[in-house]
Amino acid sequence: MCLPIQDAVRTSVLSSKWRYNWVNLPQLIFDDNLCKMSGRYQWPTQEKLVMIISQVLLLHRGPIHKFTLSISELESCYEIDQFILFVSKNGVREFTLQISKGVVHKLPSSFFSCLQLTHLDLWNCVFRPLSTFQGFSKLTSLVLGQVIISSFMLASLISSSPLLEQLTIESSVTFYYLEIVAPNLKVLRTRALFKSVHCLKTPHLAILSITLKVPTIGEETSNMIKVFDSLPVENLHIDNHYVKSLATDGIPERLPTTLNRLQILKLADICFADLKVVTCVLLLICSSPNLQEVEITLRGYDRPNSEMDLVLEFLMLEGYSDFSLKQLRKVEIQYVSGMNTELEFIKLVLAKSPKLENMVIMPDLRKVSNRGLEITKKVIQFRRASPNAEIMYDDTYADPIAASYYW
Q: Where is the F-box/LRR-repeat protein 15/At3g58940/PEG3-like LRR domain (predicted)?
């Protein structure tokens, strides 16, 4: 049974039987909805929040399979350790702790005794267990957001979780190295930097998302490229900085390996005024012979750029090359501003995709006039290698009332 705590407590007045049953709820979720308990949409004080949670736990009986503490206004405090101690003695399986304000929270020793954990979601915490800690052997999902943890401990935590299927790491601090030994890992998402990549043994990895947020330099760059080696990725999400890192030491002619299993490629914050970026985008696409879907989110460039003509020339030359996107079926390009380089890329994809089914173009309404009418006039004239290719011009994401147009 799953019911918001405030509703469970209120419902207890309707039935004497329910009055005692609610204290057996196996799922306790303390989030921002807690402020509704008073009937007014205002934040209780820190003391009030702690008191409410303490009272609920004091009255609770039976196992707690899921415990979530994610309140925007709750800061690190001693009482949180008491809450963790309580749930650690009640068989918790799914645990979420998100500290949004103040200092990071150092996890108490009682937390590391929660050996039944299957799902763990931590934000702004310090992860420093005793040397006797053997990991969470039943863990299947792990999220570490701005968690202070050493590279060694991260590697140890992952390797001691043989059932792990989903892993998310977000950090503004650079790790010394990345080592992942996870035989059952299927999804890996990172928003962090690693100075080196020691080992990636993930034979079943299908979805990989890498966001660097800042440019890489030196050893960081060369090692981020190694992520491609021996990974059976089917769904790849990367950002502008990662794409650009592929060309830090010069634009490579090919990737370290062909991405034979890749079917879906999503690229974020891509600038079509940067020759290195555009070259590497095409390199990724051409190195994926079984690619079926491509989604690109563009980033505009307002200043004059001397590379624009070079990018345009490069794309035109590619148009005369013999490469073919033989399996590509769906393409979506967001925030199109109408730059010649953007249009030339669209023209190239249409001309090289014999099995293309549909292409969705979403304009950047901040930069186009007449909702991008000039873009539509140009695109509909481009040659299409696929007789079944349908081009959809979609501005409804910016204006729900506006219509979509098909050609």
A: 87-293
DSSP state letters, 184-207: T--EEEEES-BS-EEEEE-TT--E
CA torsion sign for 50, 55, 58, 63 is negative
User: Of 79, 103, 126, which residue constitutes the final position of a domain?
Assistant: 126
Q: CB-based contacts of 300: which residues, under 8 Å, 6+ apart?
A: 271, 335, 337, 364, 367
**The residue type at 271:** C
The helix or strand, by DSSP H or E, that contains position 340, with its residue range, turns out to be helix 340-352
Backbone angles phi, psi at 119, to 5 degrees: -130, 130
Residue the block writes with tokens 């004239």: 381
- Among residues 126, 150, 167, the one where a domain terminates is 126
Q: Which domain holds residue 360?
A: 263-407
* DSSP-assigned states of every residue in 282-330: HHHHHT-TT--EEEEEE----S--TTHHHHHHHHHHHHTS----TT--E
Does 38 reside within a domain? yes
- Per residue in 24-80, pLDDT (tens digit) is 889 999 998 876 655 555 677 888 889 989 988 988 888 999 999 999 888 999 999
- The answer to the question of residue 385 being in a domain is yes
Provide the Cα torsion 157, 158, 161, 167; round to 10°: 120
Q: Which residues pair with 75 in a beta bridge?
A: 101
Q: What tokens appear for 146 in the block? A: 């701005």
Please name which of 29, 96, 27 lies closest in space to residue 65, comparing C-alpha atoms. 27
- Note whether residue 284 is domain-resident: yes
Instruction: Give how many domains the chain has, as a whole number.
Output: 2
pLDDT, one tens digit per residue, over 147-191 is 999 999 999 999 999 999 999 999 988 888 888 999 999 999 999
- Does 255 fall in a domain? no
